[in-house]
Structures are given as C-alpha cells and as structure tokens.
Amino acid sequence: MAERGSAEDRLIARYFKPLATAPGALGLTDDAAVLTPPSGCDLVLTTDGVIAGVHFMPNDPPGLIARKVLRMNLSDLAAKGAKPLGFLLTVALPESIEETWIAAFAKGLGEDAEAYGCPLLGGDTDHTPGPLSATVAAFGTVPQGKMVRRSTAKPGDVVVVTGMIGDAALGLLKQKDNILQKRWQLSVEQSDHLKVRYLLPEPRTALAEAVLQHAAAAMDVSDGLVGDLAKLCHASGVAAEVDVSRVPLSDAAQAALAADPTLIETILTGGDDYEIVLTLAPQRFDAFRAAAQKADVEITDIGRVVAGEGAQFLRNGNALAFAHRSYSHF
Amino acid sequence: MAERGSAEDRLIARYFKPLATAPGALGLTDDAAVLTPPSGCDLVLTTDGVIAGVHFMPNDPPGLIARKVLRMNLSDLAAKGAKPLGFLLTVALPESIEETWIAAFAKGLGEDAEAYGCPLLGGDTDHTPGPLSATVAAFGTVPQGKMVRRSTAKPGDVVVVTGMIGDAALGLLKQKDNILQKRWQLSVEQSDHLKVRYLLPEPRTALAEAVLQHAAAAMDVSDGLVGDLAKLCHASGVAAEVDVSRVPLSDAAQAALAADPTLIETILTGGDDYEIVLTLAPQRFDAFRAAAQKADVEITDIGRVVAGEGAQFLRNGNALAFAHRSYSHF
C-alpha cells in the first residue's frame, strides 16, 4: 500500500497487513508488490468496485461489503477459467468512518481472501468527502492462450448457466420495499435467501477449471442474463434461443414469480447474479456436468446458440420483450 | 471494462477503446484482460488514485487529471526499476459530468499511455453521487528477483534524489492562495513552473533501467522527502544524513525560499514530488550519473546512509525539526 502519513500507516499495519500473506506483498511496506508469474501461464486481469448508495446501502455490514467487492472480481476470473492469484485494494473512506467499521471490513475481506486463495498484494487508502468506495483489481492465471472469451461461441453450442438466476435482483427489490416479502408470500427462509444472495454473491471459482476445459465461450452474469447473453452473442457474431421455462429459479424466486408474474423481467434482466453463462459443444455437456457435480455447482442447459443476431428468451414459443435488457448502475 | 448498460458501453467504446491498444485488452469487450508475462520476469503491481477536492481541484483540466493519476503509478514503477506493461482504470463520474470532460480526460490519458508505453488493458466506470475519482492499477516488469526495494539500503550508501524537490508542494500552496506569487516575488515563468510541477509530475520512467542496475534501495518521493526517506531508512534498518544545502531546488523554489525561509518545511515535507530517492554504493555513483545523463534526468547526491535510526536533515551541522514529516491526504 502507498503509505500516506501515520494515520493511514497505522490502519494499514493493524487491519490490512495481516491479509498480505503473499511474500510478494512485502508486508505492504513497499511502493509496489511483486509476483513471479507461474511459467507457461497468462495473467488474467480484472477490476470492479462498489460505491455506497450505488452498489450497497451505507449501513450494510462492512464485512459483507468487503466480501462482495472481492467476489465480484473473483466471479470475472472464474468466468474466464482463471485461478485466483491475488488482488490490489483501493478504499476511499469518509472522515466519519469508525475504526470498528474498518476492522469488520478487513476481517470479511481476509476470510474470503483465504477461502478463495486470493491474497491481498497491495493497495491504497484515502479519505474522501464523498461516499465510501472500494475497488479491487484482481489477477488470475490460465494456461497460455487459454483464457475463455466471450467471442468464441458457435452455432450448435448448448447455452448453460450456473446456480440460480434472479435471486439477487429480487433481494434488492425486497430490501428497498419491505412490503414485498408479504406481497410475494415468502417464508422467512425464502426472504432471507434472497437477501443473502443480494448481499453475498457466490463466485464460481470451484468451476473455473471445468469452464477452462469445456466452455467454448463464457462470461459472468452480473448485469442480468438477458443483456449479458446478448453481449456474448454480439461478441461471437451468433444468436441464442433460451427457453425461459428452463432458466433455473430458487424456491424463493419461484414463489415471488407465482405471486407476481411480471417479476420475470426483474429475474432475467436484474443485476448481481454473479453466475456464469457459457456455451459449449453438445458432446462436451456430460463431461462438464460431471465436473460441475464434483465442484458442487449446479448447472442448467437453458438453450442453444444459433446463427443470427441477438439473444431471444422464448416462452411457449414467443420471444419475451423487455423494457430494459440490463441492469445499470450507470 | 465491465460494460454496464448502454450509456457506459457508448462512453467506453467512444473514448476508452481507442486507448486499449494491447491485444490482451480485447478492445475492452470482455470481462477481463489477458497478458502473457515476458519470460524470466517478475510482475510489479501498484495502485494509486485521485479524488476531486482531495488530490485535485474539480476545475483542473481533465486531461491533466488523467495524466497525473497515470503518472503517479508510473512513478512507483520507475522507483522499483520496472518497465511499464499496462494498466487498469476505474473512474467514478458524477451524474453532472459533461461528455466533453470525459473526452478530454481520455485524450490526456491516451497521450501518456502512448508516451510511456503503458497501454490501457481494462477497467470499470460507474456513476457516483460523490466527487469524481479515478484509480489506476499499473503493472510493470523487472528481471526475476530484481525489483528494487525500500529495505535494502546499507550504511555507506550515497543518498540520491532525481529532479527537483518541493516544486509541487509550493505549486499547490500558490494555487490555494494567489497572493503568494507576489509575496514570493516570482516571475511569471517561475510561477508557471511551480503550477505545472504540481499539476503534472514527471515520472522517471527513463531512469528505471539505471535504478535497476545500480540502486541498493529506492522509493518514489510522493509524500515529502523527509517522511519518505524516513520510511526507506526504517524499512532498511539504517539511518541517513542529508545535507539540506544539497537538496536540489528549482529557480522558482529558490526564489520562494529566499522570500520566506520557513518554506523549507513545505519543500522537504510537502507531497507530490514524484521523484525517486535512492541509495547506492559510492563506487556505483559515477556509472549511475552517466546513465542518468543519458536518460536526461538530473540526479543529486544529497547525503549518506549511516548506521542507526531515522533520517536527519542537517543545515550547518544542525538537524532540522519538522512539525509534520509527511504530507497526508488521509
């Protein structure tokens, strides 16, 4: 970390240095970190951040905010088939921030850094007159030339998604309007499920190796399945046909959808899923499913890649139309 | 760049994609960038950012803000002896931002990315309810095991700084209080010099190879020479004695100091120099000076590393005492 004055030095030494477990982090006491890249590997680099009031509520638990911003980046790495190597962190803290907040943030961050094998390498802390923000730049490795791209889907490929779609977007809606839990007739467990899925995505790091082995093209679903699959199709110069009835929904999402059928748009175009959408040759599907079972990640065949343009979401043979294809914080 | 919705897509495609000249940036159309690290090299990673109202004035020229944040990171790489490889950019934009601002920001960024051989690899843009901020994570390479550290200075080493010290801190003071140009009896040229040195640091990228070859220890001077040299000494378990009369000052800084001798504290402890302070064995000094001349970078022998603790700044044999050793935005 760039050490700026004693207040920052003290915070870094106390809360972030214990997370800098990689030798190349140099205990956060130098201008930069150093990494020897594994030989025969490419580096995969991504960055994503969160801002209070935009991507999270200022009173969300700090440990969860930290884990979410790291996981957003881990999700990108997993979708590219990359194994995590480490990350840089930038935090901008309002003057009013309590040290207990920083302690809880660092604790959550450290837990996930360890759980996902992605140590803190360095970073930068500053005070800001604005809202709190946290940005991660994360690095992973793939065998040379093997990063899984968006642009390599082929007609005939199966379209697959991991996990469940729509929970996080429903969780955000519900968090903004408490009446919805009742209107959607959710059990306490269902309501909690949606909330957790919004606050704490599950990056599919365990599936990265299988994505690398089998996927023709892949990306992470962070801005809604409809818009993200459309981007993948655009990059690949292909189209996709998705059977909406096969899009995997949790019990909670199914309950909400039964109570309010218009929620299908929120489910399919809302953000923050942090699942992977990928395409693969049909003959690879069984091997991929076996690898996914081993990694304890659910996967679902939701459609096919075809020649043409655009991603169509079909219900009873009719393409759904959406007011907004992607969730945008922008 | 993580593309979030059409407004961001359009901005990225129009203004940032032309900067993504490295093949591994994939035209900013994927979740991540990919790099094949040069064989036999370590990667050097650093991150530093700026926030409006903290590190720059909201009405500073956007092209200069962009160049400064990239240069701050290039300065860290140069101090480590690293050759630039590329960078990730995160920008948080207020809703009120004009597209012309973004165009000018991207133009300045692109000019420096090209000039320093450090292409844009990817990034993230978001809107923020707070002040504008920009964060760069930059990557460089050094031969394996050769990154120049802070912790390897030895008693007997010569202490060297590049360029001139204190200009940027004086430039900031002057920018905050227009009366100072008159009080310091600066010519227009001198006044402009201080302003430019504050707005646009000169990373010593051209000297990185010589630092790598000759330095025992090095760091960039970004938070004031006094505090930064103290950090280097602390990391190395040594002390340093600096002759204040040998610290290199520009004409402008000399004029200001003549008008107000108390400015020595601003000069020595102010931030934003973005020079390099390094130590080297005396027998290496001539070769280093020759390399610096070839790179067209001024260097000055300002003192010696000795056994002990702390960095002393001596004037007529007496150690100066400072109210604040480092400039801190924190």
List keywords for this structure.
homodimer, 330 residues, alpha+beta, 60s Ribosomal Protein L30, Chain: A, Phosphoribosyl-aminoimidazole Synthetase, Chain A, domain 2, 2 domains, 7-stranded mixed sheet, 4-stranded mixed sheet, 11 helices, globular
Global morphology of chain A? globular
Number of helices of chain A: 11
How helix-rich are the residues of chain A, as a percent range? 25-40%
Reading off the top of the CATH hierarchy, the class of the largest domain in chain A is best stated as: Alpha Beta
In terms of quaternary structure, the protein is homodimer
Q: What is the distance, rounded to the nearest whole angstrom, between the alpha carbons of the first and last residues of chain A?
A: 29 Å
* Number of separate structural domains of chain A: 2
Query: How many β-strand runs of chain A?
Result: 12
Judging by the overall fold, what is the CATH architecture of the largest domain in chain A? Alpha-Beta Complex
Strand residue percentage of chain A:
25-35%
Low-confidence stretches of chain A: none
